[in-house]
Structures are given as C-alpha cells and as structure tokens.
Amino acid sequence: MNATLTAESNPVAPDVLPAVVCRGVSKTFGDGDSRVHAVRSVDMEVMPGAISLLVGPSGCGKTTLISIIAGLLDPTEGEVHVLGERLDTMRSRRLVPFRGENIGFVFQQFNLLPALTAAENAAVPLLVAGWRRGAAVRKAREVLDAVGLSDRANALPSQLSGGQQQRVAIARALVHEPRLLVCDEPTAALDAKSGQNVMELFASVAVQTDRAVIIVTHDNRVFHFGERIFHMSDGRIESVEEQGLRGEG
Predict the structure, then answer these.
(1) What CATH number is associated with residue 68?
(2) How far is residue 232's CA from residue 239's CA, in Å, rounded to a whole number?
(3) Of 214, 172, 189, 202, which is closest to residue 66 (Cα–Cα)?
(4) Could you read off the pLDDT of 68-85 as tens digits, one per residue?
(5) Does 249 fall in a domain?
(6) What is the torsional sign of CA 22, 96, 208, 141?
C-alpha cells in the first residue's frame, strides 16, 4: 500500500490508509471441466470508519471474496492486504492469531452454540484467546448491553428470536474489538423492520474511526447505509458507488 492508493481512495483524508487492499484477486475451485471461477481479478480498497457494502446477485462471488479478505480462504491469484499486513503470503501460525485478534466475522447462519447462553456465546472469541471465563463473560455482557440485549444475556439461543440471535452474533464479532468487521448477509433472515434495526446497530455500534466494516448483502432496502457500494457480478467488481456519509447521500 502506498500514498497514491490512499489519496485516490480517500481524497478528503489522504493520510488515512485503506484497511483492506485487494489487487488482482482471483479464486477458482476444482479442475478441468469442473473448474469454477468464483472471483475474477478483483481490485478493491476499503477505508476505515465507514460501512462498505458488497452487493450483487446470489452466486456472484460475494461470500468467497469476503472469506478471502477475512483470511478464511486463500486466493488462487493476487494480493490481499489487511490492516497493513499481506494475508495471502502469511503463514498459518501467524494468520490464525492475526485473524483472531483483528477480524470479526458475522456469518449468515448465526452459528450460535445451543447449550451456551447469549453471554457465553458472545464470549467465545475471548475464551479462545485465553481470557478467564469470568472476565470474558463480563466483557460479553457489556457488548450485549451495547446491542440492546442486556436483559437476554442468560437466555439460550432457542429462547431468542431471529433478530435477537443476530444481535448475539454481532456481539460475538465485536467483543474482541476487531479492526475489521465482515458480515455475510446479516439481514437475509430478517423482516424489513428487523433488518433496518440491525443496520442501524452497525452504524451506531460497529463503525469507529479505526474499524472498517464490510457487509455483503443483496437487500436493496439497506443500500443507503453504505458509504461505498461495490457492485459485483460474475466474480468481478463491476462498479463502485460513492454515497458519502449516511444521511448525506
């Protein structure tokens, strides 16, 4: 990453480095006749302090691309820089702790552990990082309070609505204070009102000056939340739409 990239990405604040830079990123699965080109030569920059949306029809490569950005998949070709580190050449022994410390991921399926309470589910990243259970659960309760679930901290996932489970998943992704938050279709299973509430939650809780937020969605009801919208089709970024700060565009 260099000053030219930064100035082009954010001319208003040219001293702010992109949180994510992809250069010529491609991903293929399989071989021969069964080969699938999921991502094709993607160039992309994501700035901190804002919500960036990755939009497009189902099957266009959105989830594959964010999985590469989050370090869950290796690209077949290209470079991936996240928070100043090059992920595509990072060895596993460095990548795993880097990802655990710096990246939060909200999956489309909430992936909550059914035998754990909301607070315990939200505390999982801290427990994996070696925190004592009591301290981890206390921190998780603070984050659940921030997402409006303080009164449901002791509830099991089966006792929560879909929207409440989504909030637990968001709390789990935020509890370790990541500098990059990646979300895969966070409103897909929600009605219009709940989806709007979740996006407002991201705007109020997740967005910070030193944190980048990337949200994959095909829900055009929430497009106005994105300061930058990357339109994806057939594995490629077809266009980038700048909307400015929410409420200004």
Answers:
(1) 3.40.50.300
(2) 7
(3) 214
(4) 999 999 999 999 999 999
(5) no
(6) positive
Question: What are the pLDDT digits (tens) for 184-196?
Answer: 988 877 778 888 8
Helices then strands, each counted (H, E), the chain:
7, 10
Q: Within a domain: residue 248?
A: no
The DSSP line for 235-247 is: TEEEEEEE--STT
Count Cα atoms within 13 angstroms, Cβ side, for 57: 3
CA separation (Å) from 68 to 1, 77, 82?
A: 18, 11, 10
- Sequence-separated (6 or more) residues with CB below 8 Å from residue 205: 146, 147, 170, 174
Kindly tell me if the per-residue pLDDT of 173 is higher than 60: yes
Give this prediction's pTM: 0.87
* 229 located within any domain: yes
Amino acid at 178: P
Residue 119's domain comprises 3-242
Number of domains in the chain: 1
Tokens of 217: 């969605």
* 3-state secondary structure at position 15: coil
CB proximity list for 151: less than 8 A, separation 6 or greater? none
Classify 82 as helix, strand or coil: strand
Distance of CA 122 to the CA centre of its chain: 16
H-helix or E-strand containing 162? helix 162-174
